[in-house]
Amino acid sequence: MNVQSYSTQPAQGIRGEIAVPGDKSISHRSIMLGSIARGVTTVRGFLRGEDNFATLNAFRAMGVAIGDDGETLTINGKGLYGLSEADDVIDCGNSGTSIRLLTGLLAPQRFYSVLTGDRYLRRRPMKRVVGPLGQMGACILGRDGGEKAPLAIAGRPLTGLEYRSPVASAQVKSALMLAGLYAAGETRIIEPHLSRDHSERMFRHFGAAIETGATGVVIRGGHELTGRDIIVPGDISSAAFFIVAALLVPDSELLITGVGVNPTRTGILDILTAMGGSIALLNQRELSGEPVADLLIRSSALRGIEIAGEVVTRAIDEFPVICVAAALAEGKTVIREARELRVKETDRIAAMATNLRAAGVTVAESDDGMEITGVERLGAATVESFGDHRIAMSMLVAGLVAAGGVTVHDVACIGTSFPDFFPLLEKVTAR
Ligand SMILES: O=C(O)C1=C[C@@H](OP(=O)(O)O)[C@@H](O)[C@H](O)C1
Ligand SMILES: C=C(OP(=O)(O)O)C(=O)O
């Protein structure tokens, strides 16, 4: 995508039926597990975003044959020890999921790897995976004592670990689970509360030796996985922009079909419903071990609420667009215990505070959240994406209800997770 800036204007109603592209988290994991399984894995509904292509290209660089007929990916799995050394640095682009999960997967290989990414990714914290992997026996060097990429990984045998993670992070959990597939004995990961469990579900789908329960997730090392067929559901994190748009724009009724509604991801639905949003889950079903539904959204008057605790983890990527909903809700919305937002593609607390203030909203920042006082109408604004796809899309949603519209600079980043965002936006706002 080559778009440099884009403007949205007040819309008359968000109407019709759309399907959003495949889930980003599940798409990454399908390539990783398919590549180290024995036999063929097929993936339908793969998200064709830049982040997922970073993962796909990494495995091609390590000798995995991955066919693509435009609809289905066919991965010729190499088995646990079938990857070969990439002959260059592996570039993870903007993708935190790629670099952190790959660090776990590459630490126990019999070869050397170097992982890097774009200027945003090279600023993000890596010690959260490098630290516990080191306790398992991994040899990983990085800038700032292993905190920042590029990361250099000298593969070596690992030993299982019981790790109590200080953060509820699916990237930390999944990195250790992938390392645990190779480690001697058992690897147990205990989280402060359950983060998205796509890895647990997919490990089971591929036949890994895995147990889950109140005492965390346990992986027994040394068991081969078996290639499987996967259908990737629509990404609820992408649907979120259209859900909020349909709630905020008067005279809207939107059906979003085939959205993943894994309970570890539906915090956005719980938060918006608690704010007074009308969201119905229809036609609930299951695809490749993941729950899926169609979502029917109607314009609603929203009210401010308090958001803290485990729902924060279940809605972590949706906070930029939740801030937009809060800006138009009656009263105050208080977000707490969301410090993780400061270490995403950008500091999402600071970015949304700056951008909403530009549109006339009163926002108070705290260390781990913010307080947003709703207004009846947003003002016209010109803002930056800060190189963050979710900030860009959230502010374009804000433009649909801002007198005079919103212009966002540097929107090419949207291609990392949602390549079809602009055509879909044009489709649902067309009159
Ligand atoms: O495991 C994953 O696929 C992801 C986990 C989350 O990150 P953290 O693990 O850092 O919370 C999320 O923000 C990211 O978009 C995708
Ligand atoms: C945080 C995100 O992704 P990642 O950590 O994979 O870069 C996101 O997509 O919002």
From TrEMBL:
It holds the Pfam family EPSP_synthase. The active site is at D317. Gene3D superfamilies: Enolpyruvate transferase domain. InterPro entries: Enolpyruvate_Tfrase_dom, Enolpyruvate_Tfrase_sf, EPSP_synthase, EPSP_synthase_CS, RNA3'P_cycl/enolpyr_Trfase_a/b. CDD domains: EPSP_synthase. Its EC number is 2.5.1.19. Keywords: Amino-acid biosynthesis, Aromatic amino acid biosynthesis, Cytoplasm, Transferase. It is an enzyme of class 2 (transferase). The keyword Repeat does not apply. 3-phosphoshikimate binds at K24, S25, R29, S169, Q171, D317, K344. Belongs to the EPSP synthase family. Monomer. Catalyzes the transfer of the enolpyruvyl moiety of phosphoenolpyruvate (PEP) to the 5-hydroxyl of shikimate-3-phosphate (S3P) to produce enolpyruvyl shikimate-3-phosphate and inorganic phosphate. This is 3-phosphoshikimate 1-carboxyvinyltransferase. It comes from Geotalea uraniireducens. The gene is aroA.
